[in-house]
Each structure stands twice: as C-alpha cells, then as structure tokens.
Amino acid sequence: MTTSPYPKLLEPLDLGFTQLANRTLMGSMHTGLEEEKGGFAKLAAFYEERAKGGVGLIVTGGVSPNMRGRIAPFGCEMSHFWHVKKHKQVTEAVHKYPTKICLQLLHTGRYAYHPFSVGPSKVKSPITPFTPKEMSVRQIKGTIKDYAYSAKLAAKAGYDGVEIMGSEGYLINQFACLRTNQRSDEWGGSIENRMRFAVETVKAVREKVGAEFIIIFRLSMLDLVEGGNSWDEVVAMAKAIEKAGATLINTGIGWHEARVPTIVTSVPRAAFTWITERMKKEVSLPLVTTNRINTPEVAEQVLASGQADMVSMARPFLADAHFVNKAAENKADEINTCIGCNQACLDHVFQQKRASCLVNPMACYETELQLEKSKQSKRIAVIGAGPAGLAFSVYATERGHKVEIFDKQSEIGGQFNVAKQIPGKEEFYETLRYFNKQLTLLEIPVHLNTEQTSESLLAQGFDEVVLATGIKPRKLDIPGIDHEKVKSYLQVLRDKEPVGKKVAIIGAGGIGFDVASYLLDEKSLSLDLEAWLKNWGVDKNYQHSGALLNKEELSKHQPKREITLLQRKITKVGKGLGKTSGWVHRAHLQKNDVTMIPGVTYKAISDDGLLIEVNGKEKLLDVDNVIICAGQESNRDLQQSLEQGGMKVHLIGGANVAAELDAKRAIRQAAELAVVI
C-alpha cells in the first residue's frame, strides 16, 4: 500500500453527522457570475470543475439574506422561494462528486454599494460612498430571522450547510467592534452585547435547519483596525459561537479597510496561521485557517503541526481546479500555483467585472473557453517564450496542434524573469516551474538562444506563426538621454548593473514601482514573517485591540537609497496600479520615504542630474542615476515580412498591445487564440 504524500491534508474530517473527504476548503469568492444573466449555469460548471478536482468542501461567494445586505443594487440574495431553483444547478453539479458545498450568507452592512445600507450605528465606511442608516431593534431581529430563513432555503436548494460571514468588516463584524458599534442598548456596549447579533444569528439558523446541517462561522480573529476587538473579546465570541451551535469556525483576517495587506503576493505564505493555532487552545470545534496557503506542502505543514484542522484556499482553486487530485497523485509540481496577484480575481470583482485568474484564464469561463480537440492539427511556430507564448503553446498542444517555441534568451519566462527579481514577487518562480513542467509533459520543442528570421521560419514549413515577442523599450525624447547616468529597467533588473544612492525613476506605472521596490530592499520581507509583521504593524502578542502595534512600536529603518518616482500624468502617482494591491505598493514606498511627483516635464539629463519642470517651476534633481521605466512599443519586427511571404501571423501579449506589461491580458489572449486556431 502506498503512503499518501500529504497524509494530514488528505485525511477525512468527521463532523459527527457527516464526513468531509479531506481537509481542504475552497474559500468563498464572489465571481460576478452570481449576477450575470444565465450566470448560474456557468457558476455550476465552475464549481463542478473544482469538485471534480477533489476539494473537500466548497463555500460559495457571498449571498445576502435580504435586500439591504446586498453588495450592490442588483447583488445576489437568498430570500425568496424562487431563488432556490437556480442554486439547485450548483449543488447538483457539485454533488456528482464526494465534495460538500456551503452557501455563504453575507450581509454587507455599511460596506454596501447602494443607498439602502444599514449598520449598527450611523458610521460611514472609508471605502464606500454611502452612510448607513442605524438599524432599529426591530430591523436587527428581522435580519436575524432573514439569516435563518436564508439558511432554510439553502437546505432546500441542496446545500450541505452555510457559512455565516462574521469577519472582514461586514455587518456581523461591525456589530462586534466598538469601531462601528456606538449603540447604548442591549446590542452595544459590552462584548456580550456587541456579539449578541452573531450569537443570536447562529442560534436562529441552527433552530431552523436542525442538527444535521453544517454551520461554519467566519470569525474575525484579527481585525487589524483601530477600534477592533481585543484577544479576550475574540475568545469570548468564539466560545459563545461554539455554544450557539456552529459546526466549524473559519478564521477571518482583517477588515477590507485595514491598512495591513493580508492576501497580496508580498504577504508571506501562511502568514496568519499562528492566530488559528492560538484559538485552538480555547475552543473544541474544528478550526479552519486561511490566507496565502497556496501549495500542498504549506497546507500539510500547517495541519501536521496542529495549527488548524482544515485549510481554506480560495484563489489557489481559481488557479488550478485540480489542486487536490494533483496533490493526492503526488504531482504537486504540475499544480498551476496562485501567485497572489489579485489582478483577474479581486480587482475584477471590485470593478463589477467577472472574476477569473491571471495564470488560469479558464477560471469562471469553463463553458466558454474549452480546449476541444482540433479537427485539423497544424504546425505552429511560437516566437517568444514569455507568459503569452508559453500559455498559447500549452493550450494549443492540448488541442492537438504541433507547436514549437523559439526564443533568443537562454531561459523561458520573458518578462516574468524580470518580475521575479522584485522583493515580494517570488511566487512568479512558481508559474515558470509550472510551464517548464507542462513543456516537458506535452513534449513541446523549445529552441532557446535562437533568433529566427522570416526567411528561416518560412523555410521550416509552418502552417501559422504566433508572435509573442513582447515589447521593446522606446527611446524617450529627452536631451541627454544617452548620458552614462541613464539606465533602462532591464539593465537594472535583468543585467544587475550597479545603481547609485540617489536615483530618479522616470515612469510610475507597475514597472516604476517594481524598480523602486527592488532598489529599496536588500532582502524580501515576504520570506521573513516576524520582520514582515513588525513592518506592517501587526501585534503578534495581541497586547492591543485589533492586534495593531502602537506607532512608537513600529519598526523604523533607514532606506537604502534616496528615490524620486516621476510621471508625466497629473493624476495621483500609482493610480493605474491594481485596485486591491496598488495601495500596498504605494504604502511600501511611502514607508521608505520615496518622493512621488506627478505632472512632470523632463527638460534635460546632465552631469548635474535630471532637470524637471513641475507647475511651471524648474527643479534640478541631484541624482547618480536616472532609470527609464516608461515608453515601450510592441516588438513586431517579423510580422510584415512573414505576411509578405504568405504566412498567417497572430499577435498576442505585448506584441499586440504594449501599453504596460500585462501578463493577465497576455495569457488570456493566448487562451482565446488557442481555442479557435
């Protein structure tokens, strides 16, 4: 008998009245399909693929128990009998496999993006435009009944349970904390009163659904905001939730308005499992831990060391639906790992767009992007082994085409080889490991250190050519641009050329921010949990409410360089960065005293430094180096001559659009082309 490669991760979990196949929970993610016309059929296909991939328990995206709790004006709710039918599509699809599924009940409270929002008190959220109306006692009791009725409808729809969302700063969390609960009645004041809403909700749900129904309570164990709860208050709440009838407690980390990053790629792996471990000493319910657990090795370590009874992974199941099965078959090196970038998942959801995944554009498009075998197998040359070229080659080969890759560099990866140098972006190595493995499994010929000409390609008898040649820097029109002080970002990141102590960076897009981070940090904090927690002000000893350090306790360090980040645009510097991660990059540079200047006109570069003009006034920046992170154009050198030779040519990635290095668009274009070619 072969031993399991991940014995704790793949071990069943007995809940008394039912058993989970393993210790993996697919955490709640809103996809946007919940509100699309015909979206539930697509949602069913999305969850079915994950059930087929072996996950033990799925928690859906947040669904409101009533109209006021909806995320947005037409947000999804489970409050009427006619809502049951569409949800049955999801549960029936999942139950073709041994996977269980729970509906997440989420009332947004003051986080609602509509004017009918309510909260424990009339306290506006910093991340939404509407001030909530203070709930009357009648409304509170009515909302608790709504939760119970929603749970009953969920049972009718075939769900195995519900997750009651009590963290991340949503309504139940708002009641629990003094930050947002300023009431003086029996629903405010002491922690016993503030947690009453949560406890009464769990009791009402349990009464409505009976004993044999999973109730997960998502408890905010670290609020990470001022006015958050103390550890003693969190423990009191956990014990009361256990007594009220919950089956599992899931770990919630941070409010949406917290100024501590909790899930972006620069957060260390399993950065918050210590708080779940601490809670295990206080309650006897099985506990689920969460946040930045993205490989079976990390998950196994967390479980084997007794920090939790289950691990919740949300985005890793977007990146690879078959995460669990691959782990069980000892094929972890074939897992398409989540890199924590947020670009296609959370950023999309917060822009009211359908979620997907940068490294797996098939996620949430299971019914639309299907790799069916091609009727005709073509010989295709792919020029460029960056993300676009690699993704296309893998998808097209899976459809039966004969693909060969050519790249003039000595390794695959293109711009990912630049990105992985940035402190906090170590996860990019995982994507390159995944593609390397796929190239081997699919036996795709890769010709490195090989520059092709149109003549050589035409002579080899290919049916079609895909140009994934990326971008090339465009020379900026600034007097002195050829001065020895000037370097391109590639010279700094790829070629490791030395850079002085005082630096001006021209261009404040993603590349400019990356170069600034690279020049600031000698080592990556994402590889040192204790240093990372201190840097972001997390109080691991929980001496203060919200688990935040006092200002005087924050780690102070002397920046390695004096950096000025410049842009021509007059908008806020960094405005174009990711919606859910941009603030992290800006905060990191601000902590390191980086000067950010918008509305700049570049006058000249000389021995004296960089002469700029801002608001009509000239200013000389005394710098050792000027690094260019702006101005690139598509590299399409081969297109015209190939087409003139009668070759059909396709452009994807940077070769197609060079506005900013954009792996999300590049990999999606690759998939869309592979499906139709």
Automatic annotation (TrEMBL):
Xref: SUPFAM superfamilies: FAD/NAD(P)-binding domain (SSF51905), FMN-linked oxidoreductases (SSF51395), Nucleotide-binding domain (SSF51971)
Pfam family membership, one: Pyr_redox_2
Annotated ranges, domain FAD/NAD(P)-binding: 379-656
GO MF, one annotated term: FMN binding
Protein's GO biological process: fatty acid beta-oxidation, unsaturated, even number, reductase/isomerase pathway
InterPro entries registered for this protein in UniProt: Aldolase_TIM, FAD/NAD-bd_sf, FAD/NAD-binding_dom, NADH:flavin_oxidoreductase, OxRdtase_FMN_N
Transmembrane segments: none
Keywords, alphabetical: Flavoprotein, FMN, Iron, Iron-sulfur, Metal-binding, Oxidoreductase
Keyword Iron among record annotations: yes
Cofactor field: FMN; [4Fe-4S] cluster
Top-rank taxon: Bacteria
Domain NADH:flavin oxidoreductase/NADH oxidase N-terminal: 8-333
Protein family membership: In the N-terminal section; belongs to the NADH:flavin oxidoreductase/NADH oxidase family.
UniProt name for this protein: NADPH-dependent 2,4-dienoyl-CoA reductase
Lineage: Bacteria, Pseudomonadati, Pseudomonadota, Gammaproteobacteria, Alteromonadales
